[in-house]
Amino acid sequence: MKAFAYVSAPDVATAVRAIATEPRAKFIGGGTNLVDLMREDIERPDTVVDISGIALTGVEELAGGGVRIGAMVRNSHLAAHPLIRSRYPVLAQAILAGASGQLRNMATVGGNILQRTRCPYFYDRAAACNKREPGSGCDAFGGFTRNHAVLGGSESCIAAHPSDMCVALAALDAVVEVESVRGVRRIPLVEFHRLPGATPHVETDIAADELITAVELPALPVATTSRYRKVRDRASYAFALVSVAAALEVQHGTVATVRLALGGVGAKPWRAHEAERLLLGAAPTEESFRRAAAAELAPAVAQPHNAFKIELAERTIVATLAQLLAAGGAA
Amino acid sequence: MTQVENRPRTGTSGPVVGRPIDRVDGVAKTTGAARYSAEYPYADIAHAALVHANVTRARITAVDTAAASAVRGVLAVITHLNAPPMKPARPVNLVNLSTLASGSSVNYLNTDEVHWNGQPVAVVVAETLDAAEEAAALVAVSYEELPATVDFGAQEPHATPQKSTAISSGGATKGDAEAALAAAPVSVDLRFTTPGHHHNALEPHATTAAWDGDRLVVHEGAQNVAWVRDQLAWKFDVPPAGIRVIAPYVGGAFGGKTMIWPGTILTVLAARVTGRPVRMMLTREGVYRAVGGRTPSTQRVALGADADGSMTALIHTSVTQIGRVGGGPEQVTSQSRHLYDAENILVQQNQVTLDALSNTAMRAPGESIGTFALEAAVDELAYELGIDPIELRMRNEPARNPIDGKRFAHRALREAYARGAELFGWSDRTPQPGSMRDGRWLVGMGVASAYHPSWQFQANVTVRLAADGTVLVRCGFHEMGMGGATAQAQIAADALGVPFESVRVEYGDTTLPTGPGAGGSGQTASVAASVVAACEKVQRTVLALATGSKDSPLRGQRLADLRARDGGLYRTDDTRGESYAAILGRAGRVSVDAAVGSDTRLGGIVGQMRFLSKFLLDNRRWVKAASGAQFCEVRVDPDTGEVRVSRWLGVFDVGTVINAKTASSQLRGGIVMGLGMALGEETLVDPRTGRIMNANLSDYHVPVHADVPPIEVHYLDEPDPTMPLGLIGVGEVGITGVAAAVANAVHHATGRRVRDLPITLDKLL
Lengths: 331, 765
Hints:
The complex is a heterodimer.
Chain A: E1 5-8, H1 12-20, E2 25-28, H2 34-39, E3 47-50, E4 59-61, E5 67-70, H3 75-80, H4 82-87, H5 89-96, H6 101-106, H7 109-113, H8 120-123, H9 165-171, E6 175-180, E7 183-188, H10 189-192, E8 211-217, E9 226-232, E10 240-251, E11 254-263, E12 270-271, H11 273-279, H12 286-297, H13 308-329
Helix pairs in contact in A: 5-9, 11-12, 12-13
Chain B: H1 26-31, E1 46-52, E2 58-64, H2 66-70, E3 74-79, E4 113-114, E5 120-126, H3 129-138, E6 140-145, H4 152-155, E7 160-161, E8 171-174, H5 177-183, E9 186-194, E10 206-212, E11 215-220, H6 225-236, E12 243-246, H7 262-274, E13 278-281, H8 284-290, E14 297-305, E15 311-323, E16 344-354, H9 367-385, H10 389-395, E17 407-408, H11 413-424, E18 436-438, E19 441-453, E20 461-466, E21 471-474, H12 484-496, E22 503-506, H13 523-547, E23 562-565, E24 568-571, E25 577-579, H14 580-587, E26 591-596, H15 601-621, E27 622-623, E28 625-636, E29 643-653, H16 660-679, E30 711-715, H17 738-750
């Protein structure tokens, strides 16, 4: 790990001022991803601005039924919060499906949104990686691609976004609030992460001097019947091969409301807009679930080691929707 | 016997062998008082970090150490350009088995050649670990790359047969197995593959080294401290007697700490160069790059049978990998010579040579992956025949060793299956694949045989019986977590008839009498044999002291007529006798001492020859092994193919069980490791570069707690008459058969045969 300067910021104003004057600085919250990346020499900040003491730790109900979550709320705290468990069970389940108890105790909501891919070629400085070194090439092509994206990748990069939490946030229409010395912006989660295109090193919409301060969840009654299903290579402590965040409401024999997002398969947390479009107003049958899933995965581009994810994603979508239906998605 | 995890009674009385006594080092380990190799304090200790090559075959053309040297606190950046010379790897010589222990033939930092992707090409020494790691990342090495052979799959067609030697056999035949297979009314002919695996002991490899002139102290988590000493003495050209290797605690090893790997040598080199005590613990990635792993394999198992299930043909061949710089054949087909009474047998092991680090021992090298292929194939044959898989095994259970007709020292596989089937509820199983469900889950039950040969090595031991009734056993054996000191204390306590608490065992230090390495599941039996012999010597001396006195009730008695109990010797005819304290006190003796084996140079050679001749003689007379029946229940998600092992039960024939608690732990540990092999573990070597791409615990999937079901371990507890105290080692048999039992259960649940490990969900979609 490269030696670095350390600055502790007691509040948002100090933090964003500190980073505005330090072009090679990084915020550190829980550090569960950044410290790994620094130890692996992937991230080499000159300065680390510690924001873990900033009191962005509230989980508050908003007028109208939404919830505002402070960016420094620890993952385990959020997953255990009664507001989240009762109104957005998909989010609590997604968080608990990720990492380990120790990591969730440290990891923050803001940091989780900004975590970087686990592509082994990104992590290995001996390999070519356009994300790590723009223009250097991509050794994942022709290499081990079991954990790589089938949706949203490009010729430059097929790394998958690793977060579980973000998949649930994508399904829930979450909005990310960011702040800098220039002011406050609000970015929908589904627009927060970028597809790699020709610039896979540009991963999000956030500027280098902006700090995530909060995530807001809108009131979403359908989310009380929601579920996160994660499929992975062992029972715990593994990234998703495929995950599905879903919420479903059926009225008068047709799908009245549906939210669907996928993890493990996308270059970013993947909101399944096409599947949602087909499901809305359709009969809640396995057949229509299957058709919607297939349509969502139709643009998928597979590599030799991850072709199975397309069928796995379709099966997992169908099974998850069917379970939601059985669990009371029908009103 | 079923293990009962009760608390030990304080103040044991009566025999303790077999009892589930808490390990003697339990408190030290759970409180952190136990010191591991990287935890020894030295006043002016320096820290080292390795720089690994990131190319496979190459010549180093330049090394830029300027940036690394400029990091504050860096003491030395040692490369092939400035390293002092060391002797090349020692040639192998069977009179001194420590010559087998060179991890590779590369003379690290004394050569500009790179032989595998990950070979250390520099070591940085600094005042702090952080400085050493930061500087190591700044060492810039330039290479001229050379063509390399790294793709195991592509090399398989070029495999060459393993030649047989006095201590390892590459192949064997009985009859004409191919012809019998062709003629068999029912047969299977199958190809299996298993990937490479890597070591992930809780404690990564660590060394602390301190020179004083030509004298050296090394703290090294090792499976053979004497081998570390001898190898280092050779490399650094100093007398072995001046080197002390200390390893009372080893945080797991599983075969990975048997050889002397570059991290050890380069820590000692770093200490030599800097004149400071130096500590280095490999990073987790470093363990993958600089310590060998289990070879990948391809295997063919072909079985032919009559309609009644009698096997007429058994063919098992394998291809495994060795490194061009070291490693050796793995006995993948070993169990196939012993498990089934086939009329015709053909076994043959083959190798390919790659530009890779040496393969090395990893829990049951050979049998762990060999039993997967054989036992999965037997299950397939059972389905072809329409015979229950246990019944098929029983119909082919041999009375004598199938390949050559030798006698079994001990064999109780029939009893193991009978007991296991009853305890597991095998009769509840409906044989049709996919026929059992639990809600949405598909349920499957599978079995497989466990098999591992039993070994016994030379062990030098001293036993001291003190006048106060305490006993000191000294032997340089190894405690990697299996409970060796506890077991040997139990053995000595019973042999001398003293309370367990009176016995102290010293181990893990080259200043002690040379013990066996911890390997081949042979350590407990090897040390036990010498402890029992030494205790008998002690008793003879004590008896001589007693019979020398006219006051002793033991006067005129022979040892055979006496029983050691209650801290003394007592007649079996009329219970008269005396305590050791009384006898030694009357004779004015502080202690009585006995030794088995000698650590003089001549004694060492004599011991080695004695071991080899006993090994060869035993091999001629008997087939000795641990065995067992593994029962597995799985649940498979029909939508996603996820496999969850829901229940495990193993019944083991491991002879006398010395400590039912530590033995169960070891067997359970083997089963857990087998679950890793079955479902997750796979070293990913990029076939383009020869580079391991999942050198971490995130991407290399060992089982987590949620993957491990309740595991029931049972013993038959019948002594093996040819082994000391009737005991057979338990270190490795637990992992054997596990992957096959899982694969067979998965087939029963889903109807799918997965013959390529690991059984990941994509193979079941």
